Amino acid sequence: MIKYNTIIFVSNSDTCRGQFAVAVMKAIGENFLKAKDIKVKSRGVVVLFPEPMNPKAVAIATSKNLHIEDHMSRKIEESDFGMDVLILTMSESIKKKLYDDYKEAVNVFNIKEFVGEDGDLDTAYGGELSEYGELFRDIERLINKVLDKLDEQAESADTDN
Predict the structure, then answer these.
(1) Is the residue at 36 inside a domain?
(2) SS3 category, 44
(3) 65, 88, 84: which is closest to 136 by C-alpha?
(4) Looking at the domain assignment, is residue 1 inside a domain?
(5) Continuous segment of H or E residues that includes residue 69
């Protein structure tokens, strides 16, 4: 079983979904991440220059006592990939783009695929604040499933040793 020391959430622009996922994972998975010494980051596939977070995403995160307002978007790079890195994309098209554009791409999964679901995690870009709230709740649900799966993998790795 592969032990991941880094999890990277990849969205289009790294100004909303990826940082939502990072903030939620750090909040609800804090003990697990510390115990397993796992770092969590976000990246984008279409980042021409660093951009601040989407203001509606910041508003939703702040309402949940999560602080993402200081994050600046970053483009994923070849050096982000590795056998000990888990890449979770927000859509199947982003997953395909990573495998097509990066020769080092490995351990790349659509987040829904990783937890046994079908489809993509839709973007709220350009939507109402309530749509960002719905997106946040969906990400929260998925992160709980990701943490459960990682915990199961860690337990099975521990019993295999």
Answers:
(1) yes
(2) strand
(3) 65
(4) no
(5) none
Share of the chain above pLDDT 90, in %: 86
> What's the CA gap between 18 and 8, in Å, rounded?
8
Range of the domain at 149: 6-160
Let me know if residue 89 belongs to a domain.
Answer: yes
Quick check: 11 and 90 in contact, CB under 8 A?
A: yes
Instruction: Tell me the pLDDT tens digit for each residue of 52-106.
Output: 999 999 999 999 999 999 999 999 999 999 999 999 999 999 999 999 999 999 9
CATH of the domain at 43: 3.40.50.2300
CB 95 within 8 A of CB 102: no
Closest-CA residue to 88 (of 40, 136, 54): 40
> What is the pairing mode between strands 39-44 and 85-89?
unpaired
Total number of domains in the chain? 1
Indicate the residue type of 105: A
